[in-house]
Amino acid sequence: MTAALHSRRLLPAIELLLGSAGLRPAEIDAYAVTIGPGSFTGLRVGLATVQGLALAAGVRCLGLPTLDVLAARIAGTADALVALMDAQRDEVFGAVYDGAARLQGDRRIGVVESFLEALPERTAFLGDGVAQHRDRILARLPTAVFPPRSRYLAGTLGLLAEPRLAGGEGAPPDALRPLYLRGAHLRGARA
Predict the structure, then answer these.
(1) Contact, 53 vs 31, CB < 8 A?
(2) Does domain 67-140 have CATH number 3.40.50?
(3) 29-66: per-residue pLDDT in tens?
(4) Other C-beta atoms within 10 Å of 12: how many?
(5) CATH 3.30.365.10 assigned to 3-65+151-175
(6) What is the pLDDT of residues 76-121, one digit of tens each?
(7) Could you tell me which residues are beta bridge partners of residue 84?
(8) C-alpha to C-alpha distance for 126 and 77, rounded to whole angstroms
(9) In the chain, what are the domain boundaries?
(10) Nearest-5° angle of CA 128, CA 133, CA 138?
């Protein structure tokens, strides 16, 4: 999706959401946003939108890694959790978590098999990188669990962010930074 298309859809969706909740933008105390990994365009548009709204309102922001929010969606379903997002080029963005969704190691990019080493038999997986690599996951880990969860993260993001923001966490809008796990994939100019 292009930046222009993101922009045309995102702000009207925010306006609709606030209106349906009976809220005005000035009534928002803070903003939370996933900071990546993800598509460069999607991250830039999402972060810039939240930064603009928060700057205009003079409120704090909290950015959480997308993989952490995915893992929180399946907390408690297995002894270990793996969040995987499609990174193109037969790679995934991923991270391993304990059963309570606490990060174990680093968030990184790699082939799906690199995330399957030394996992307990009962490991749960979630993310758009799971569907395309399910056979490869099951070949290495036949007891893998795939909890039925939507990949919409807004609700989980809100549940994670609210207590942290209430506890004083957050930063000025200009402090938000994307979490890129791979450098930009630049295309040459078209002739």
Answers:
(1) yes
(2) no
(3) 999 999 999 988 889 999 999 999 999 999 999 999 99
(4) 10
(5) no
(6) 999 999 999 999 999 999 999 999 999 999 999 999 999 999 999 8
(7) 94
(8) 11
(9) 3-65+151-175, 67-140
(10) 125
